[in-house]
Design goal:
The chain is an alpha/beta fold. 37% of the residues lie in helices and 18% in strands. It contains ten helices and eight strands. Strands 3-4-2-5-1-6-7-8 form an eight-stranded mixed β-sheet, sandwiched between helices.
Length: 245
């Protein structure tokens, strides 16, 4: 049975969906079969980041409404074989319930090594649906107070939903800017602010951000790709030392 991980953030703009897409590709490079479920109804974006938006006909709501079998709404990423996407509905009114999401995901875990659920930012609409089937969560934050405060709230809400295995990715990290800001003494202070174990640090990488916007995979010699490869290994329960990625 595949691992189900909900990818969350306290606020928009942290790069959560970019990390989700990049982490999916990194897990594939480790030999996994990976499904990304986009749960951001009305604001879906994973299909754009993985270059499949022009192929979409059905989405997760079509499965629930009986318009198609599950596999007809799951799309392969052409540039990353063994990476698949289940798109969110285009309309918020078609958002599915937590219980239905739990049932659907239970079926799909038999076909994939990892399922990553891209959760809407914050704890508003769609949060409980995205978190319902997850056995673990990854918080994606930037090393700044507003982002971290939001992640702390999300962590507490996840725990109330019985998701206790919660890890932290610090994304778009720039050490020079971090030191100049002078809010936190070091990354340990950032981690303490959220109250979750560190899974990895993804450096600020404009080339990776540009690739995602163009529907291209984050791979090769990109700084972010190297960091995501190490994070993927940890999600596969490999012992990879933590240090500045």
């Amino acid at each position: 049975m595949g691992k189900v991980t909900v990818m969350t953030s306290g606020k928009g703009g942290t790069g959560k969906s970019t990390v989700t897409a990049g982490l999916g590709a990194a897990l594939v490079r480790r030999g996994n079969r990976v499904l990304i479920i986009d749960c951001d109804a009305g604001m879906r974006g994973i299909d754009l980041m993985l270059g499949i938006s022009g192929e979409l006909v059905f989405d997760i709501a079509d499965i629930i409404n009986g318009n198609c079998p599950p596999m007809s709404a799951i799309y392969p990423c052409r540039t990353v074989p063994e990476l698949y996407v289940l798109p969110a509905p285009q309309n918020v009114r078609d958002e599915i319930s937590p219980s239905v999401m739990r049932q659907l995901t239970k079926v799909l875990t038999g076909y994939y090594d990892h399922i990553l659920i891209d959760c809407p930012a914050g704890i508003g609409a769609g949060f409980e649906t995205a978190a319902a089937p997850a056995s673990q969560a990854v918080l994606v934050a930037n090393a700044e107070p507003l982002s971290l405060r939001g992640c702390d709230k999300v962590r507490r809400r996840l725990q109330s939903c019985s998701v206790d295995n919660i890890r932290l990715i610090i994304n778009k990290f720039n050490e020079r800017k971090f030191r100049k800001m002078g809010v936190f003494e070091d990354l340990d202070a950032v981690i303490d602010e959220v109250g979750a174990r560190l899974l990895g640090v993804v450096p600020e990488d404009n080339a990776a951000a540009a690739a995602a916007q163009k529907g291209q995979p984050i791979e090769g010699k990109l700084k972010a790709a190297y960091a995501l490869d190490r994070i993927a290994a940890r999600l596969d329960d490999r012992e990879v030392p933590l240090f500045m990625e």
